[in-house]
Amino acid sequence: QRIGGLSLVSNPDFPPTFAISSKLANQLLAPSGHTVAKLKQQLDSKLTPAPFDLGHRVKVNANVVASDAVKTENVAAFIEGSDPKLKDEVVIISAHYDHLGLNPNLKGDQIFNGAADDGSGVVACLEMAQWFMKAKREGHGPRRSILFINFSGEEKGLLGSTYYNEFPLIPLEQTVADINMDGVGGIDVKHPTQSKNYIYVVGQEELSSELIDSAKLLNTSLNTNLELTLDKRFGSDHQSFAAQLIPYIYYSTGLTEKYHQVGDEPNTIDYEHFARVVRLIFASAWQTANQDTRVKSVERKTLKLAGYVCPPCPFACDDQVFSHPGECPVCGMTLAPKYEIRQQGE
């Protein structure tokens, strides 16, 4: 049985995690008098932890063998800027092309096609690459250079974007911003206003405020008239750039009705809404690549490295600070740098 996740390092810190059946769990629980059903009922009724000792009568042996390395690729395309002074600066437009693969244990459809997550982002990335290249051929190319990247391994812990930020094609000092798309098709049935004409826009104040303000102005001036839903917290490849203090803006339609299900198919996408979203994202990228001044960022010289932290995840490890890079020992996500303001005299 395959356990654990993929990692960028050969010897990750986190222990292997086993997923077992209820039948096996009940066998392990039998000496204590508990069952999975009884424990679930107890937890649901009191909503408090219910720890207990299995004693010495339960012993489990397992052999863990490391799997062979898996090779994959980030897919990148580059358009050089037209301005002699600005072309050394680069705007990244990103999405991720991996998904969940297939599950042979399912009956019927076993393939997770990922039309919204993130086929829609990949399609948007390819389409915008064509638009930018067409503009360049017609003599109106972007002033700054554009790097289009479709990352691999996002679903396995932001592996592709983490690797890129360790070994960038363009020095990070020359990277103006990351405009990331993870699921820009489909509709979130739990949208706070029940809107079907929205886009979640995610950023953080010290890195993204200028990009978000620009998106608001463009949404009005272009008459895309989307409802820009802010203050949502979604994890994706933009986190790898945020960890390096690179300005970013993240566009997403969020957790759509078929999120991470085999039903995430092309027929679930509202293509008119999808087109409006992509027009706004293209305008955001065009503005970022052509404005006179570079997007404001954090002054790296005012900061110091304070450790490494886990990206946002469902577990209780987000607030832990580790002294070294690697993987989170709780959830296995790749740890990101944490910075603090350097005090006077440091």
Task: Provide the fold topology.
Layout: H1 22-29, H2 36-46, E1 75-79, E2 90-96, E3 101-102, E4 111-112, H3 115-137, E5 145-151, H4 159-166, E6 175-181, E7 198-202, H5 205-221, E8 227-229, H6 238-242, E9 248-252, H7 271-290, E10 303-309, E11 321-322, E12 336-341
Parallel strand pairs: 2-5, 2-6, 6-9, 7-8
Antiparallel strand pairs: 1-5, 3-4, 7-9, 10-11, 10-12
Helix pairs in contact: 3-7, 5-7
H/E element order: HHEEEEHEHEEHEHEHEEE
Shape: globular
Query: What percent strand?
Result: 15-25%
Ends distance: 51 Å
Distinct helical segment count:
7
Task: Please provide the count of β strands.
Answer: 12
- In what order do the strands lie side by side in the largest sheet? 1-5-2-6-9-7-8
State the low-pLDDT regions, or none. none
Q: Tell me the Rg in angstroms.
A: 23 Å
Helix-and-strand structural type: alpha/beta
For the largest beta-sheet, the strand count, sense and barrel status come to: 7 strands, mixed
> Helicity, in percent?
25-40%
Q: Indicate the mean pLDDT.
A: 89
How would you describe what is shown here?
This protein has helices spanning 22-29, 36-46, 115-137, 159-166, 205-221, 238-242, 271-290, and strands spanning 75-79, 90-96, 101-102, 111-112, 145-151, 175-181, 198-202, 227-229, 248-252, 303-309, 321-322, 336-341. The chain contains seven helices and twelve strands. 32% of the residues are buried. The model has no long low-confidence stretch (mean pLDDT 89). A seven-stranded mixed β-sheet has the order 1-5-2-6-9-7-8, with helices on both faces. It is α/β, with parallel strands linked by helices.
